[in-house]
Amino acid sequence: MVVWLLRRRKSEMGLCGGRSIVSSCRAVVLPRFGGPEVFQVRDDVSVPDLKPQQVLVRTRAVSINPLDSRMREGYGRSLFQALLPLVMGRDISGEVAAVGSSVHSLTVGQQVFGSLHPTAIRGTYSDFAILPQDQLALKPPQLSHYEASAIPFAALTAWRALNATAKILEGQRVLVIGGGGAVGFSAIQLAVSAGCHVSTTCGSQSVGRALEAGAEQAVDYTTQDCETAIKGHFDAVLDTIGVQETERIGIQLLKRGGHYMTLQGETAKLADIYGLAVGIPMATAILLKKQMQYRYSHGIEYSWTYMRADAEGLDEIRRLSEIGKFRIPVEKTFPIAQVREAHEAKDKGKVPGKVVLEFD
Ligand SMILES: NC(=O)c1ccc[n+]([C@@H]2O[C@H](COP(=O)([O-])OP(=O)(O)OC[C@H]3O[C@@H](n4cnc5c(N)ncnc54)[C@H](OP(=O)(O)O)[C@@H]3O)[C@@H](O)[C@H]2O)c1
Questions:
Q1: What domains lie within the chain, and their CATH numbers?
Q2: What pLDDT digit, counting tens, does each position of 294-306 carry?
Q3: Ligand 1: centre distance to CA 307 (Å)
Q4: Which GO molecular function, any one, fits this protein according to its record (predicted)?
């Protein structure tokens, strides 16, 4: 069925209103939580009808985020267990195959990229994925699909921390702990583009890339003592590692009134252990306690920051990519049929950077 559809002319593909042009397609399905071996590539996974604001995307590439691997292992089970089997994946780059009745910003045949929310139910590891129109933007033309698919989830995570939480301003000082990863490298580029002075910690292989992207200082955490090497105090610290040690250092290096933001919030973890009804209020109480403690002891704002879809953010990220001021390097690509091998390579740390799955 999919082969037949792909042979249809693009103009024909847009004439389906709210009904999806496909009723089923190939997708990577997670029938139970576990290692990469649990993935199944199935040919008959249903494609729901489009809601008015939704877009059907013919997938060309999806990137693997740490969230995908953690979800595969059971992170978020308080929400996702009852919904198994799941289609995995957040990031996507592809082509608009059909649009819902209220979609006016995109048309069939356009090349787009975007990302689903962390809690979205049907993911993007699928020949056809469905996303709300405001979670997609036109793909920067000079980027291939696999390059574009590496960007949205990580970049929007950094965007939310810097722009929605810390509300960074030109001239401010920003510290990115973990500038070698996709979110950290995104944060360096976004903060530099906003006119901030950026310092970062990263592995030796990432130092050159961080400096090239405009960081004023890149401290190699594998050979240097970050605490003594980083000079001065910061308006915002984005901690992508979020362990006790990085939190302690990040807090010490903030100015009064500055923002410490960690990506390792505990809401999902506590909900998985204690259930949604107990875990979420418990997480809220822990967060409030830490916020009050740090406000009192250091005069700083403390937050757990999460990726959220953001149309304005995605548009700015697209603009920066188009003018060559934003990119996320892709280390390796795999065909979607080798999704198990790709996840295994990430799990075992065989590929340090971004891994992308390509669709034929
Ligand atoms: N809360 C959310 O909504 C959200 C969203 C996205 C990601 N995350 C989480 O944020 C983390 C980063 O995500 P990502 O996509 O950027 O992952 P990633 O691309 O896999 O990056 C991880 C990087 O962390 C660096 N690193 C490890 N230990 C370090 C240390 N002690 N100091 C400095 N850098 C260190 C390594 O960089 P080097 O190569 O430089 O050593 C590694 O490449 C993951 O844990 C992910 O689950 C959370």
A1: 2-150+329-358 (3.90.180.10), 154-304 (3.40.50.720)
A2: 999 999 999 999 9
A3: 14
A4: oxidoreductase activity
